[in-house]
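Supplementary notes (optional reading)

For those who missed the lab, this is the record we used. Protein: Glyoxalase family protein. Length: 314 residues.
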Amino acid sequence: MLKKSKGIHHITAIVGDPQENVDFYAGILGLRLIKKTVNFDDPETYHLYFGDDIGRPGTAMTFFNWLDGHQGKIGDGQVGITAFIVPKGSFSFWKERLEKFNIKYSLEDKFGQSHISFHDPHGLHLELVESEAGNNVRWSFGGVTPEVAIKGFFGVTLYSSDTERTIYLLENIMGLTKIEKDKETIRFSTSGEIGNIIDVCITSQGTGDIGIGTVHHIAIQVEDDQEQLEWKKHIAEFGYDVTPVRERNYFRSIYFREKGNILFEIATNGPGFMIDEAYDEMGEKLMLPQWYESKRSNLEKTLPPIKVREIEVN
């Protein structure tokens, strides 16, 4: 039986200086820093989570902060573009805000929709798309109010090193529906309300190089542990190597690399980001999994301090 993907759970990228990261995504884009923790596979490195007020699935953009990492190159085998939903009628606010902070942008038309296209300080390619989909957030910061704030993901553009096999995965294994095509892109959709658009670029963008300014992986959501195990079996039946289930505290994960070299994660929707912090305190303290608590003192000394702050115009 063909399984159906619900859509994006989160997207994880690699960036550099963590304070620059916080200043841009919280201070300028207005997302909430919902969790300050470490990369569970590399605890000397931050893993920062930004999203709506509690990091609901489909809203969380997360980052590994490589202070001494090399600059990557966006290309084949990666998520090339990450697009966010903003409320209808908010484009004038976002254009003015980007101009206010000296962020260059362009307007792109994709399948009849206007996209504001720009880059973050470390090179990630981002877009904003107006849509009625999703709920307005319950979070305000630095002049970004719920009436204009990012609601979550619109979707992504995949740059594949084997476009035909990536398309086969999306249609025949992950159950996405092909809805549109133009000269450069094939668009697929999932059953979710937000984070439900997956575009595949038809032409090669050149070989990508994972490093600062690139997406590390895209995570697809499943409801619970049982559904995740069903997906694990389902994907393995098509010849993909799927990792064992890995505990991420706020969700559980499995990973596989598809034939176009893009790394996919399948993540559970629970237990969520409120299991270890009160709502009003989310993102303020360094939160560690139980198995790293013995390293807390050393990590708090070596990880650079970061602070969510309102950003002044230069």
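If you only remember one thing from this example: The first strand starts at residue 8 and ends at 15.
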